[in-house]
């Protein structure tokens, strides 16, 4: 079915339980997560041969990360270890009008201090069909921009399909810096993923008739965004997840895909949220799976949207969902009747 | 007010906390539950003299079950003990588009291995007004079909009113086997309970204009179902709970009752769900209570529907609700204002 | 910005976790709360210099209360200690049609046994701009009525603005007794706060076209209530919080303000509730803050309503919200998008 | 085997988890306990027909107590309900040199306000073999002294054996008051239980060569105490539990018994403590069981000491131990090897 | 360093938290464990290439087991899936004189229903250095005796070293049946592991001067046991772990080894126990590691004893300890000073 | 009684619950702690006017720290805020032979990046009697060495008594660097605190006849250490806490004091440990309290040793103990009898 490699940082995730605010919490729930690791785990749950590449600190937490990903069947053999700390992100889960709040404490991490010699891309990308990364990786430093170039050019040489999720993070770099670096990297990218905000922030391409803050998004507007992105960078495919925020705990959720010249959109779900972090990653994973399975554009966007809809109902960044469960939702079983 | 005996299996219930999936859980919440025990506890909470009959393993878990039921005032003196294991059911609580999932591990239980000599129905049913069982009990084995026949015929001889909740479980028997056995047992039954799916699966009687999967149910359709069931088996009363699934955590909930020739339906509630397991049992208990109190058909179905509406807001299978609380909801206090 | 003193009882709050009923709980979450303490903490979170005055038992729980309030920066130096017990209130959190239930166990508390000599109002109210109390304080006994008179008359002498939240509690006194006492105390009050029920219960002033039980409230009706209250007691301002109960976990929430002759109302929020206890107190704190900041009437009621809207999303009685977070909601960012 | 009635107060027990101090706890574990209820439950666990008599508040907590005791098979049919509150006791579990700390909040409880008309002793004591109470009951007020007199004199008339555990509580009454009241009640008592301190505090009878604070107790000294008590009050039997405190979590534990003229002592156990509250009650229950079984004095004191040794390893006041488990320890299996 | 295969059943482990008795628990901690899986994980933690072979049910729990073992780096590629249930064992953790209690619910498991065709031993044992199983595996049924024969004879053909841990379980088979089957299987075994009781129960070989119940074990006696076992079955090595039970939470722990003709014993540790289940498995894993490393007999028994000493301090069956940590203890750092 | 200022870093403390290893934990307990903050809180619990000075990040965690310390009554008005992160330390609590393990993640913290302009020592030290810091503070960077010099020289000018706890941390600096910097700072120090290892590591002064690893410490040896330290640096007093590690959960604990020329030692306690982190800080706080109270040398060392003995029984770094509780232990009530 194809082998997928993803590359990026994985952090310790510390979240307050029971919707407590940071100042109220006397315990944190612990897991490990990161955009590209989330994609690898999601694909592994779809029975895809997936491999996650990163660099971890040589301590108990580095080893805990290794175990944590390995349990989901992800290939971890190209993970390297070195000096430094494991990045951390803290999350306080919102509700109703109170937004969730994320505090990053990721500076000086082992991964951010990676060196180009840490990863042997010739070997890593042998026998690989798909390579995925996100805009977070090059945002972590110029060394990582360099490593991305190396990985991407190797992938191109080997005929590996390359996907990228824009994943703009304002805390990591300015829009200007992001635009400069990402424009350059786009030349290697075949398939682009983004959310309802990224294209504007990174490339200045905005959807008409849409207001992200108020949760009103226009399909027409996002079709234009897809077409402009394709035009500018000559992508095979562009997919955008569309979140209409109504409350911190209830969102509209859908997605669009421009494949070649064909534009399709998925049905929209109203999702009651257990945990929305990682939804974009599960959307990307859904599309990668669909493409590897040669689904039609319409089936692909429905699969990815349903997969990521279900992610919202699962605690943690990882999408613990099977292909069968996604297909059940695509086929209309979305009313939550008990499965016995 | 009358004494009620219920008969069936009670299991250990192991549920994942906080909407976790099975693969994520490192602890299970423990309780003990089963359709007929749920009815007995609900009736005891309504101050009805109720007695639960079962067979339990002679070990710590059998004794724990005994304590567990006894605390709610249910008469446990006819419970017998023997070899075997306590059946278990595991539940992972869904949310939004993700359904709850139940895994049964009930084979080889002490109850499933019951022998006809384990229960002295002459004694058990002395001074009793009502006997209740569900379709799960005969589904557990031919020995239990035989025991049901014995119990039901004794009940009939003694003039005890008999109710049955169809409670079809596809994991326990085929629709064909269920139809064969249940058709036979219906001859003893005065009052039949079912949910929106059971009548079709067990007796092939389907509601028009309804789609259970999509959560659209027609009152007209279910009136026909009631009338056909009554016609075929000559019941005194037939009541059906009607669940319109919208999300795993939000359902429409109502009920209909055909009593003699009078068909009535309750108002419909939109329920935000804490735990929906046991709702059907609490609906049956509500109706048994209403009948024992000689409520009118309209009052009866409103009482049962309100009681089981409230069950959805309570963790665990048991309906910890008083008559006064049910009546408060029937009278329209359903907006959840704080009671101080 | 002004210094605020609040005066009243603070209790141990014991709440069942996870929506459990009292009879199901084997643990209680512990915090400390009371209407006037809630206001003081909320103001301190808005960076107002606030001081809470009460009397506590001379034991571990009295000392725990002291620490508990002190951590939020509230001035506790006028708290006195003495014989008696700490009052307790138990809360079982409802859901959907099942209301939350509060059981008070506050009799014989140290505070209820306060003596007029326990508080030196001359000293306490020196350099103070605002004094706040609620109808609960005088409801606790005639000694407290006397103490309130002393505090209020001292405040008047010193030119301190006085606000009162009616906060009628049927378990503490009859409507007749409340009316008698509160009518008397109103002569000292400049700013009155109430909820959608208080004015009718305490002063017999009812809103037309409104049904509190069914959750339908009329702005016109509440404008009349405000105007009648102002007319009768000559208040500077009257503000009423308006809760439209739909479900125990979903409410409509808004507020109205009559300031001088100008009547304004805030937008209405649909709130998905984590914990609604203390919402009225956070509404009062919002208005006190707005008045201390000389906001316009419209800005004031929007600020107070948004602040108390957010309170519903926070566990416990205290409103852990900053001015910046309230303003963000007032400015329309209410769709709960993640803050990174 | 005989029916036993015990009479006294039962309270809500709120304990801090994980050895936290009161000021650190943000949750309390909840159970219900009281000296005489503890004895009733322990006897019921030994399969004795036991009945607990008390008066409870007419609210959720009164009903919760009822369920709580009923689950262990104790007969609750003579429990009455009325006005007032449920007494509470808070416990912070110590460790090493830090003692456990108990704070009582039991004033004004429903039980403390019992009236002599609340209990029909003629009916309660019909067909009963043994009546047990402790010194806590008359310490709660003169009404309870009167009720004790009534109960005890009825017991005597009916030939019921009466046992009393001195259980002196300094917070409830002075040593003088205790001596006065208890001396009077002793005329009805056949079997007296005490711990290493009670006899001195209530009756001024002290053991030579012993230092309770330092944990050095002399068997000779306690033989004298037993003999003096018997001499003064003409008891059939006197039993004293002997705790040698070394650390809050490690104690020596033994017991002595004077039966007729025969003085025996049990082996001493070094107990590693999970929860020592209720150990004295389990010692009393052990002896009552032994006497009902007509064990020899030596067997009786060994049984009671082993039963209460095991109590120290069980969380909560209740001794969840079977006769078989106690006998296993008496026979020497005390090294804690896994039972499979 | 060598590749090790272990073969056996793995179960769901449900344990009561905080030393609660089964009847008190309302939650269970969940993990997955089994003697041979424990050995595989322990070896993997020592960086040995280890592979665990079993058969699991085709459901969420089978998949959870797979993830659970995989996270520790154990090779799971020969695990097969099929019909049936996952065996369960319940554990209540004792303290002081109260023993831990294990209840097995493992009948009818998928593994117990394994067929000889489920495992391709030719393939599984290719390139393998060591094969390990325990007496539990053949105790599960005659089909498993047959499978063991197949596995062991294949191992012998391929020159794989075979070790067996006697692990007698009285609930699974009689001593007679065990002796019959195990005697037969011993012909394939090179290295035998046992605890202080097994040899007597399975082979009737008893240590002089020892009393297991009272926790007094004689080194001389166990040297004889080793020598007799070696004589009878011609083992290369025999190792016995020696537990002197003093309290459920404090044990003496040591081990002896007869290697060729050289008898050695390890120092004895007094262990304060967090969880002792799996200690024997960690002892076996320690010795396998030592043998693979060609340690001397004295170093081997010290390594195994230290490794399994540390196991007692770790929650769960698995020994999460590194080689470096074991060696630190062997070298005398056993006083528990903080490692910063 | 005197005012005390302490100066140093405070971190987030994340500890695994229930003795879990880092790799097993899925939640961490959260608190905030640091050597000098621990001293300030301990003193405040003794009713000393204490003030803690540090620099915190301008985010939710900085604000949480502020609340956290403030609740214990510590004066926080000189705490400054700025860029950077909050340092973190992770702790896995050991047992028996398994040591506790601490992982620091404190680089790049706001405090470590403090500038000399952040603290106005003239103002901070006005009206202060005692200034305390530890060797950790200057170990964090040359900027902090400079700040310490400024603080200490200001203290000397103002006649403030200065104490220092050596607190050597090998992860922060080499022994050579520590010796160089600390030798210099000692010229300002009046009272020196150390543990059984610090003097050797920092100043090369070793106790004869002692083996820290094996937990054998000689009073004579430590008297020499005290005298040599005094001789070299001309301290008023030198106090050393003496820990004899036996198991991770059981230690011997005592202390010695050289005051002027008088050498005294405290009784030794065997402590069963709940949490030993912060014990040295509570020892220092005990001595500062004793000196401020002008206790005799013998009383001082007994008070400090008893206070820090009790710390071992309390979860977290802070010593939640009153003067009365310490004195109770000094007077010999150390056997852990329940306080009612």
Give the structure's gist in a few sentences.
Chain A has 340 residues and is an alpha/beta fold.
List keywords for this structure.
homohexamer, 340 residues, alpha/beta, UDP-N-acetylmuramoyl-L-alanine:D-glutamate ligase, nine-stranded mixed β-sheet, four-stranded mixed β-sheet, 11 helices, 34% helix
* SS content category of chain A: alpha/beta
The largest pleated sheet of chain A is described as: 9 strands, mixed
Biggest interface between chains: D-E, 27 and 32 residues
Uncertain residue ranges of chain A:
none
CATH superfamily of chain A: Ribokinase
What percentage of the residues of chain A does DSSP assign to strands (E)? 15-25%
> What percentage of residues of chain A falls in helices of 4 or more residues?
25-40%
Description:
6 copies of one chain form a homohexamer. Chain A is an alpha/beta fold and 340 residues long. Chain A has helices spanning 35-45, 60-70, 121-124, 136-139, 142-157, 175-185, 198-203, 219-233, 279-292, 297-311, 323-330; strands at 3-7, 11-15, 27-33, 49-53, 55-57, 80-82, 88-92, 101-105, 130-134, 161-165, 191-195, 237-247, 250-259, 262-265, 269-272. The first copy, chain A, has a single domain (3-330), classed as UDP-N-acetylmuramoyl-L-alanine:D-glutamate ligase (3-Layer(aba) Sandwich), CATH 3.40.1190.20. In chain A, strands 1, 4, 9, 10, 11, 12, 13, 14 and 15 form a 9-stranded mixed beta sheet that branches. The first copy, chain A, has a 4-stranded mixed beta sheet with strand order 3-2-7-8. In chain A, helix 1 crosses helix 9 (279-292), helix 9 (279-292) packs antiparallel against helix 10 and helix 10 packs across helix 11 (323-330). The longest helix of chain A has 16 residues, at 142-157. Chain A is globular, with a radius of gyration of 19 Å. The two termini of chain A are 31 Å apart. The model of chain A has no long low-confidence stretch (mean pLDDT 96). Chains in contact: A-B, A-C, A-E, A-F, B-C, B-D, B-E, C-D, C-F, D-E, D-F, E-F. The interface between D and E is medium-sized, with 27 and 32 residues.
């Amino acid at each position: 079915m194809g082998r997928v490699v993803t590359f990026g940082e994985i952090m310790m995730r510390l979240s307050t339980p029971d919707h407590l605010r940071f100042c109220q919490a006397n315990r944190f729930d612990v897991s490990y997560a990161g955009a590209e690791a989330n994609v690898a785990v999601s694909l592994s749950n779809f029975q895809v041969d997936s491999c996650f590449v990163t660099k971890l600190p040589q301590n108990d937490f580095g080893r805990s990360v290794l175990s944590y990903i390995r349990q989901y069947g992800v290939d971890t053999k190209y993970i390297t270890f070195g000096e430094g700390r494991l990045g951390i992100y803290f999350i306080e889960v919102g509700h109703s009008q109170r937004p969730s709040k994320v505090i990053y404490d990721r500076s000086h991490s082992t991964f951010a201090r990676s060196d180009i010699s840490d990863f042997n891309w010739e070997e890593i990308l042998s026998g690989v069909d798909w390579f995925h990364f996100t805009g977070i990786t090059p945002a972590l430093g110029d060394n990582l921009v360099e490593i991305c170039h190396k990985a991407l050019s190797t992938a191109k040489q080997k005929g590996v399909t390359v996907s990228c999720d824009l994943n703009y993070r304002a805390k990591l770099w300015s829009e200007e810096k992001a635009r400069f670096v990402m424009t350059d990297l786009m030349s290697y990218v075949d398939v682009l993923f983004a959310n309802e905000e990224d294209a504007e922030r990174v490339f200045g391409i905005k959807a008409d008739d849409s207001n992200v803050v108020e949760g009103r998004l226009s399909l027409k507007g996002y079709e234009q965004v897809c077409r402009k992105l394709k035009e500018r960078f000559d992508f095979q495919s562009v997919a955008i997840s569309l979140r209409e925020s109504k409350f911190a705990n209830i969102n509209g959720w859908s997605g669009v895909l421009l494949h070649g010249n064909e534009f399709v959109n998925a049905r929209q779900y109203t999702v009651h949220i257990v945990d929305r972090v990682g939804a974009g990653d599960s959307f990307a994973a859904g599309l990668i799976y669909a493409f590897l399975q040669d689904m039609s554009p319409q089936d692909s966007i429905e699969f990815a949207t349903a997969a990521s809809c279900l992610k919202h109902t699962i605690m943690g960044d990882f999408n613990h969902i099977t292909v069968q469960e996604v297909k059940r939702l695509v086929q209309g079983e979305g009313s939550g009747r008990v499965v016995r």
